Amino acid sequence: MTVRHLIVSGVLVVASSLAAAREPTAAERTEAWVSMTTARPTPIPASATHGSGPLAVLLLADLGADSSTYKDFAERHGALWTVHTLILPGGEPGVRPHRLERGQVNDPDWFINACEAVMQYAKERGIEKPVVIGHGVGGTTAYMLAIRNPDFARSTVVVGRLPALPIGSPGNIPSGQMRISEVDEHARDQLISMRPRDYRAQTAVLAADRTVNVDRADLIRRRLDALFPIVYTRYELEALYLDLRDGLTRLKTPLLIAGTISPELSAAAREHQRTALLNAAFERPMVSLEIFEGVRPWIIVDDPARLDASLLPFLGLEASTGAGAAPKPSGDEPAPGGQTESPAPSPAADTPPAPAEGPR
């Protein structure tokens, strides 16, 4: 072999190695976690059932909630549905959290386990084609279920959660490798190295930001404080690394995003949040959007009547002053698509603005 051949061969080997070592694209990363499974799944640690109606609903709780948190919401229309409130693995104080099976913090190990735990819960109880309502961290799980297991649910509702979380500031929602780099720079080390004192300070802020009810905020704080700190750290980091927007384009069943914009945010932050919500539904035929202005993420318990105005029509239900109403005879599935805003439509809602990297 000549020197020239050796050089060319060496270049090919180096180029091949670099190609093999490159960071995966967003689509490749999505396909990777869609096919991941959990060898030793951790089950749902706590649950509660309210209502006796014919429509099965799996309500995936946010961290800081307990199995009674959503009781009033569930019983508002107890003749229409039977609501199973599920505490995600790790979310019940005193119960050992999920054991990690992958070493990389940007692998959604806990959310994959949560998806499988929800499906196992439904299988054990003979629940088929439920409505899945995800709240907060449960909302990220609901997004993933709709993408990973498109035939599992009749429809999906996500309350107070974006499919791609902002990093560092409300307007910073990068994608692809930039997202990984931003999380590594702004959040990873801070969350991993969080000391108990810092964790308690963080939970106090989180609780106050979630609800308008002072007593409820205190209950959220105390429940978060009672969890293993790794529960918050792991779910938060995994959610930050995830960008589920591309997956929403391939949904097979309708999904409603009930987005909230807190009044405590600055005017610029509110506009960033509104833009992010509009883009989450932009050119995604199976996604509907309702924007709730001036409310905090726990609208589902703070103001359930306001949420009803969008939720019930989406599910093909209508409230009544009596014992409840039967589902509307409009078909098996709620109609997808559409973007509205509560209390009044935004002028920008007709043509959602594109983020810097273009609509996703």
What does this structure look like?
Strands 1-3-2-4-5-6-7-8 form an 8-stranded mixed β-sheet, sandwiched between helices. It is of the alpha/beta class. It has 13 helices and 8 strands. Helix 4 crosses helix 5 (137-148), helix 6 (176-192) runs antiparallel to helix 9 (229-241) and helix 7 packs antiparallel against helix 8. Helix 11 (267-281) links the parallel strand 6 (255-261) and strand 7. The radius of gyration is 21 Å and the shape is globular. Helix content is 43%, strand content 13%. The N and C termini lie far apart (50 Å). The longest helix has 19 residues, at 3-21.
Provide tags for this entry.
360 residues, 8 strands, single chain, disordered N terminus, 8-stranded mixed β-sheet, alpha/beta
Helix fraction bin: 40-55%
Instruction: Indicate the structural class.
Output: alpha/beta
The total of beta strands comes to 8
Distance between the termini: 50 Å
Q: What kind of sheet is the major sheet? A: 8 strands, mixed
User: What is the string of helix and strand elements?
Assistant: HHEEHEHEHEHHHHHEHEHHE
Please report which band the strand proportion falls in: under 5%, 5-15%, 15-25%, 25-35%, 35-45% or over 45%: 5-15%
Uncertain stretches = 3-21, 321-332, 343-360
Please tell me the overall pLDDT: 84
The geometry reads as globular
Spatial order of the strands in the main sheet? 1-3-2-4-5-6-7-8
Output the radius of gyration.
21 Å
Number of helices: 13
